[in-house]
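Re: the multi-chain job from yesterday

Posting the exact lines I submitted so nobody has to dig through the queue logs.
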Amino acid sequence: MDLDRNWPSLTESEITIIESVEQFARDVVAPVAKHHDETGEFPTAIIKQMAEMGLMGMMVPEQWGGSGLSTVAYAMAIESISKACASTGVIMSVNNSLVCAPIEAWGTDAQKEKILKPLARGEKLGCFALSEPGHGSDPAGLKVRAVKVDGGYKISGSKNWITNGREADVCLVFATLDSALKHKGICAFLVDTKSAGYSVNKLEDKLGITASSTATLFFDDCFVPQDALLGKEGEGFKIAMTTLDGGRIGIAAQALGIAQCALDASKQFAAEREQFGAPISKLQAIRFYVAEMRTKIQAARLLTWNASRLKDLKRPFSQEAAMAKLFAAESAMWVATKAIQVHGGYGYTKEYVVERNFRDAKITEIYEGTSEIQKLVIAAGEWDGK
Ligand code: CAA
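And the result, structure tokens for all chains:
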């Protein structure tokens, strides 16, 4: 990461934190990433250390258990962690962007005291349950129901593709009071995953990010008290959309980390691998690949930092976050593909990290809004003033 270029300007303490995250990622996370990828084992010990370093609630004010850092610093930290292990990167990103952030933005002081504090300290883990079997890209028509009962609500139905679904202590779930109202009927609830009627039904066997769980959740008349409602009735869709705007910065940064790992590995391999009597790094074909990798990564990084900076300035950033995610995700996929090409046959084997980078990169074009959805958001910013 080009911290030395000093754009955007970070505070001295942020630079110190980012440098310690970079060192932690290199010394602690990277050495066990292959193990976690191969076994699918959740990186419990690493997440615990990250919690102690204040990385699970980075942007949450200190008053509510977080580190009170900027989105720019958060994006840099996600990049460093994801460069070492993309599974760990998404676990961190979901807790920070998709769970802590909406509670901080929409929660009552009581919700912040009781639910946000332990999440931001990393004592508890959160998941974000919006997608359903029939509603991925189009969540406005979601079908999970919330029925008003004495003292609260009962939630019923299925959510799927939920990152952290297996381990989460708190589930931010979106349910509708009346599906005929479309997005205006949706509410957001903070559900304790130990509640009766809440269960984890299925775990996906995935192409990449294998050490982060992706679960189907089932709500069987799951009772939640009135104070589990986040925001007001009918505000759920807005909460989901504004949350995803911030989440997309996290995924852009994750994609950057994956791409940077693939580039670093390609440079090292090309410097060592000899063909035709010289290192292949001397070949123009390889140099052109590396030049394009470097350019795409740096452009994606600047887009990601720009979206982060706008968010920190409390200016509109939906379009910039979508551009950052679109470009970073597609760049990561491109870089990982070329990284395998640079490695030749070796790159197609599990012995080299670029094989994992290739599998991990793909999801960044899909979750928190596919590349096609990012284009809709970007285009809406052009015509519809969103
Ligand atoms: N911020 C605030 N409000 C927003 C908004 C935003 N970014 N986007 C839309 N809205 C508001 C609109 O202003 C509108 O409000 P009014 O009714 O008051 O006018 C309302 O929401 C409806 O807007 P649209 O008509 O534009 O909504 P739509 O149904 O056409 O959807 C969409 C727009 C951008 C395509 C949206 O559906 C979307 O983002 N889809 C992708 C969903 C997604 O990213 N899913 C990923 C799931 S999470 C995940 O991956 C989990 C994980 O574990 C990693």
